Amino acid sequence: MILIADSGSTKCDWILLNKRERVAEVDTIGFNPFYYDEQSIVNVLSKVEVFAANAAAVTEVHFYGSGCSSPERNVTIENALKHVFPNAKIHVGHDVLGAALAACQGEKGIACILGTGSNSCYYDCKDVSEVIPSLGYILGDEGSGAWFGKKLITDYLYKESIPTALKQELESKGHTKGSILENIYMKPHANVYLASFMTIIANHRQTEYIQALMSDGMREFLQRHICCFANYKEVNSNFVGSVAFHFQDFLRAEAEKLQIPVGNIIQRPIDGLVAFHVKDSN
Question: What CATH number should be reported for the domain holding residue 37?
């Protein structure tokens, strides 16, 4: 059996295959080695019934995750997976590689992630390469859920001009200065907390304020993370992630202004990864 995983900072999609047949699909929290240690990952995975029932039969695990950008970081994920699946060969790769395999569909091009975080790479059908590094939600992650959430609550707390209905929804859901600062500065996974505001943003996407916010964020991502590639006008830029998928009208509009050809925009890269590994195993 082969187990394939695509992990963002918020959620991880798992698909268990027996040859070409899907045995099970599972969702867990996302495992970023910057935020989770080996034992924490083991504790979560050990409680998944389908994993426990098939652990001995799993011969390969292919895990693509945010934060898995170096051997030093990846070993945390590798050790945890080896503990849960003792008979399996473990392969851990960066989520940008997973995005490239899923989105580019065998064609050369630029692959981008726009979800809780953001990133980009160039895929040459063999390897991926980066020009601009991912700096995470504090210094970077332009155009991501965390970036938009940070912009929204900053305007909210600074009492900037935001729509009355938007302000009322934030207040009705208990988002006070105290609760916001506690979640960001005193609790873990502030990036996930910030990205959770995308639900509220989506509720008000027809307002001038949100439309300007979304356009600004998409443009900043495109200018910084796609225009950095010398051939960005000559190849498709492909996207994975919930922000890219659900707000693709803003993404496409800003890309057109910058003469960026847009290829595939998919919400879940896991299906593309399954297709890649099934084909690769034949």
Answer: 3.30.420.40
